[in-house]
């Protein structure tokens, strides 16, 4: 039993195809020869002739775009790879070669999908550059520091008291009711 355990396993019996058969085609290149009938060919032939020549260049473009968007530098990014690939594949479809470029949210099946399944908005932290975010943080901090000033506090208290005494919110509501009636 111990001798049998130490013997190498004959891997050929577990895999029917050799490793040479799994080499992928060069990007954008269709295999030589006549394309097989898509309804009658094997899965491998279908992938080699119909899927890989379109998908592999799309994946290469996706990687270039991800690098351009600096996706490999941080944990979070606004770049959504599936959106890019969907848009790229739709626009590179040979059936649409004479048509103009279509943005992702203008693609008909994407519109239909998003009608039923709306997306949450992208967080502001992903949309702002570092410079824009720092300006926003600094402005909030300066505003907070100004509001902490005793003179400003006194002014804010006076405005609050004035609003309550003169019933400003009711006056504003009446004003807009009159405006809407006109």
Automatic annotation (TrEMBL):
A Pfam entry, by short name: IQ
InterPro entries per record: IQ_motif_EF-hand-BS, IQCK
| Cited Gene3D superfamilies | cAMP-dependent protein kinase regulatory subunit, dimerization-anchoring domain
Q: Which residues form a coiled coil?
A: none
This chain's protein is named: IQCK protein
Source species of the chain:
Erithacus rubecula (European robin)
Q: Which gene encodes it?
A: Iqck
């Amino acid at each position: 039993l111990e001798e049998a355990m130490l013997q190498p396993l004959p891997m050929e019996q577990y895999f029917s195809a050799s490793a040479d058969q799994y080499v992928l085609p060069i990007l954008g290149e269709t295999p030589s020869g006549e394309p097989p009938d898509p309804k009658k060919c094997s899965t491998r032939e279908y992938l080699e002739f119909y899927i890989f020549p379109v998908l592999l260049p799309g994946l290469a473009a996706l990687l270039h775009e991800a690098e351009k968007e600096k996706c490999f530098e941080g944990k979070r990014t606004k770049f959504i790879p599936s959106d890019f690939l969907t848009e790229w594949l739709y626009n590179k479809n040979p059936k649409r070669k004479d048509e103009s470029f279509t943005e992702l949210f203008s693609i008909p099946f994407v519109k239909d999908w998003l009608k039923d399944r709306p997306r949450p908005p992208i967080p502001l932290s992903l949309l702002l550059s570092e410079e824009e975010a720092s300006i926003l943080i600094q402005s909030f901090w300066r505003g907070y520091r100004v509001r902490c000033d005793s003179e400003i506090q006194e002014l804010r208290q006076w405005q609050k008291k004035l609003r309550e005494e003169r019933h400003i919110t009711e006056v504003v509501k009446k004003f807009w009711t009159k405006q809407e009636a006109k």
